[in-house]
Design a protein that fits this description.
CATH topology: Rossmann fold
CATH superfamily: P-loop containing nucleotide triphosphate hydrolases
CATH architecture: 3-Layer(aba) Sandwich
Structural class: alpha/beta
Strand order of the largest sheet: 2-3-1-4-5
Radius of gyration: 19 Å
CATH class: Alpha Beta
Number of domains: 1
Distance between the termini: 46 Å
Strand content: 5-15%
Shape: globular
Length: 286
C-alpha cells in the first residue's frame, strides 16, 4: 500500500472539460494496457499500433516499461514493492494521458494481477469513467526465452539477474482480459489488427469505426523482415535505423477495396473505408 505523505492539498478544477479536448482532437482517450512475460512482444506490438494510429492522424502514445525506467521510475528496482509502485505511477500517468484525449498504449510486464486491477480501478473511478483495455500478450515462456533479444533470460538462468519474471519471479496471467493475443499462433500484423478492434466500439473514438487498419508489417513476412520494413521500430536492441515516419504502411490486408473519399483535414489520411469487409478479419465488420 502506497504511503500517503501529501497533506493540505486540494484538487483544482480546470476551465477545460474533457469533452472540449475530445472535440479538439476528434477522438476520445483510452488506455490499452499490454501485459505479458518479458520478450512476449509487448513493445513490438505497442509501437506498431502507435505507428498505425499516428499514420491515420490519431493522437497516440506508447508508455514503454524500459523507457519509463530511464526517467520517471529510474529509482525503482524489481522487488514486489517496487514493481507495485512502478505500475501505480504509470497507471496514474496513463489515466492523465487518456483524460487528455490520447490513445495511450502501455507496454509493461506488470506481473501482478492486483497491480493491474488497481490501474483499471483508477480509470473506472474517473468522472466520467475512462475506457481501459487489458491486453494479454499471451506468449509461452519457452518462446519468450527462445527470442530473448536482450539476453535477459540467459542472464537470469545464470543467476546474474534476480527477481526476473518467468524465471525467478512469478507472472499472474489475466483471468478476464479484453483481448488474449496468442502470439505463437499469430503473425505480427494479425496481432495489430486484433488489437485495433476494441477501438471500433461505438462511442469510444470519433469516427474510428471508419478508420482503415493499415499495418506496420507487410502480410506474410517474418518478424525480422517486418521490423526492417517498419524502419526497425521494435523494442530491445533493434534500435531505429532509418526514419520510420518516412515509410508508408501498405494497404489493408483484407479484400474489401471499396473506398469513399473524405474531405481531408491537415495531417489526416484522406481515405476512409466504409464498405463491409467480406473477409471477417478482426477489426472489420463481417
Amino acid at each position: 500500500m502506497t504511503q500517503i505523505k501529501a497533506t493540505n492539498v486540494v484538487w483544482h478544477e480546470g476551465h477545460v472539460e474533457r469533452a472540449g479536448r475530445e472535440k479538439l482532437l476528434g477522438q476520445k482517450g483510452c488506455t490499452i494496457w499490454l501485459t505479458g512475460l518479458p520478450s512476449s512482444g509487448k513493445s513490438t506490438i505497442g509501437f506498431s499500433l502507435e505507428h498505425v494510429l499516428v499514420q491515420q492522424g490519431r493522437m497516440a502514445y506508447v508508455l514503454d516499461g524500459d523507457n519509463i525506467r530511464h526517467g520517471l521510475n529510474k529509482n525503482l528496482g524489481f522487488s514486489a514493492e517496487d514493481r507495485a509502485e512502478n505500475i501505480r505511477r504509470i497507471g496514474e500517468v496513463a489515466k492523465l494521458f487518456a483524460d487528455a484525449g490520447i490513445i495511450t498504449i502501455t507496454s509493461f510486464v506488470s506481473p501482478y494481477r492486483a497491480d493491474r486491477d488497481l490501474v483499471r480501478k483508477l480509470h473506472a473511478e474517473s468522472k466520467p469513467a475512462l475506457p481501459f483495455f487489458e491486453i494479454f500478450v499471451d506468449t509461452p515462456v519457452e518462446l519468450c526465452e527462445e527470442r530473448d533479444p536482450k539476453g535477459l533470460y540467459k542472464k537470469a538462468r545464470a543467476g546474474e539477474i534476480k527477481n526476473f519474471t518467468g524465471v525467478s519471479d512469478p507472472y499472474e496471467a489475466p483471468t478476464r482480459p479484453e483481448l488474449d493475443l496468442k502470439t505463437a499462433d499469430m503473425k505480427p500484423e494479425e496481432c495489430v489488427a486484433t488489437l485495433a478492434s476494441p477501438l471500433h466500439k461505438p462511442g469510444l473514438t470519433h469516427n474510428l469505426t471508419k478508420l482503415s487498419v493499415r499495418f506496420a508489417f507487410r502480410p506474410g513476412t517474418s518478424l525480422g523482415k517486418a521490423r526492417t520494413q517498419a524502419g526497425r521500430v521494435s523494442c530491445g536492441k533493434m534500435v531505429s535505423r532509418g526514419d520510420p515516419s518516412s515509410w508508408t504502411p501498405p494497404g489493408p490486408v483484407c479484400s474489401c477495396a471499396s473506398r469513399t473519399r473524405a474531405t481531408p483535414r491537415p495531417g489526416r489520411c484522406s481515405t476512409t473505408f466504409t464498405a463491409p469487409c467480406s473477409s471477417a478479419m478482426p477489426g472489420h465488420a463481417a
